[in-house]
């Protein structure tokens, strides 16, 4: 039943608002990395190269489903993950393309590992080693559980 509800929500969001529904596999397949040179300012940061399909989404409205990770006690830093915290990128399941920074339009009251459908404006990060490669701004979310 939840599966059909999720499909209906995606369909309604795509038809009514013209948003692109992203899948985590889109993000995984849409990125590759260049090894930095030893002279690089941030030698551990791999510069991202994005596919034309992912680049075309820059600045567009998107929707994606994932688990919210709250990364500070003040609840001001949020990450959306393909996996819950116990099996996310930091624990070795996946790579940095399985997370994205989320900046909500209004401060949310979500808790760690809630499954959400998040919509907002999609941006790419090619140069900032202190941020995720993907970001959603002006985000709004809907609890799915």
Labels describing this entry:
145 residues, alpha+beta, OB fold (Dihydrolipoamide Acetyltransferase, E2P), five-stranded mixed β-barrel, 8 strands, 18% helix, 34% strand
What's a quick, concise take on this entry?
The protein is of the alpha+beta class. It has helices at 2-17, 24-29, 52-55; strands at 20-21, 31-34, 47-50, 61-70, 78-81, 99-104, 115-124, 134-143.
Task: Kindly describe this structure.
The protein is 18% helix and 34% strand. The protein has 145 residues and is of the alpha+beta class. The protein has one domain (2-143): Protein of unknown function (DUF3299) (OB fold (Dihydrolipoamide Acetyltransferase, E2P)). It has a five-stranded mixed beta barrel with strand order 4-5-6-8-7.
Give the arrangement of secondary structure elements:
Elements: H1 2-17, E1 20-21, H2 24-29, E2 31-34, E3 47-50, H3 52-55, E4 61-70, E5 78-81, E6 99-104, E7 115-124, E8 134-143
Parallel strand pairs: 1-4, 6-8
Antiparallel strand pairs: 2-3, 4-5, 4-7, 5-6, 7-8
Rounded radius of gyration (Å): 15 Å
CATH topology call: OB fold (Dihydrolipoamide Acetyltransferase, E2P)
Determine and state the CATH class. Answer: Mainly Beta
CATH superfamily caption = Protein of unknown function (DUF3299)
The residue ranges in which pLDDT falls below 50 over 5 or more consecutive positions are 3-16
Number of domains: 1
Q: In which order are the strands of the major sheet placed?
A: 4-5-6-8-7
Number of strands: 8
The dominant shape is globular
Largest sheet: 5 strands, mixed, barrel
Query: Helical proportion?
Result: 10-25%
Distance between the termini: 12 Å
Mean pLDDT: 82
**Structural class estimated from helices and strands:** alpha+beta
Estimate what percentage of residues fall within beta strands.
25-35%
The assigned CATH architecture is Beta Barrel
């Amino acid at each position: 039943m939840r599966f059909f509800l999720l499909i209906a929500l995606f369909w309604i969001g795509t038809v009514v608002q013209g948003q692109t529904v992203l899948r985590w596999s889109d993000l995984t397949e849409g990125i590759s990395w260049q090894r930095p040179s030893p002279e690089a300012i941030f030698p551990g940061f791999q510069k991202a190269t994005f596919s034309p399909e992912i680049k075309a989404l820059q600045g567009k409205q998107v929707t994606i489903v994932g688990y919210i990770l709250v990364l500070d006690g003040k609840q001001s830093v949020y990450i959306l993950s393909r996996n819950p915290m116990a099996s996310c990128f930091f624990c070795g399941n996946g790579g940095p393309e399985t997370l994205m920074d989320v900046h909500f339009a209004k401060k949310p009251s979500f808790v760690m590992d809630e499954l959400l459908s998040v919509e907002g404006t999609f941006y790419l990060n090619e140069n900032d080693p202190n941020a995720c490669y993907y970001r959603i701004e002006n985000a709004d979310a809907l609890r799915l559980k």
